Prior knowledge:
Layout: H1 3-11, E1 20-22, E2 35-49, E3 56-70, H2 76-86, E4 92-95, E5 98-109, E6 121-134
Parallel strand pairs: 1-2
Antiparallel strand pairs: 2-3, 3-6, 4-5, 5-6
Amino acid sequence: MTAWESVRSTATPTIAAALIEIENQPFSQPSGQTWYRLTFRPGDTNRASLGGDKAMNRTVFLLILQVFIPEQGGTKEAYQAADVMSGLDGRQISQEGLTVHFQTAGLSKGAIPKTTPGSGWEAFNVTIAGHYDSTPQ
Length: 137
């Protein structure tokens, strides 16, 4: 399992898969209904430990869940998504030689050109930073 697959399966179990746009996968944007875009942005990788059988690489990441709500739809669904993501705060998962550590989730109003007034959508960004540890290949 890749880091992305591990993070995605942990972060989105309560959101209907049909409503989540994931990079490089086909998606039909629903009309007049809240939908989500999940983005995984890995950062720098550094050697976290050396020597013997304990050599380990550490990669930082940012997980972004964008919540697109029809204009005038309120903020309830954005806050619910933030609550789901905040359930990952401080959590650690280990699968198939990969250990993922989540930090603190945050919610902000999106500043995305697609969500300018009159576009029909408002966007909110739920972000959570973290890092994952893996053994060097």
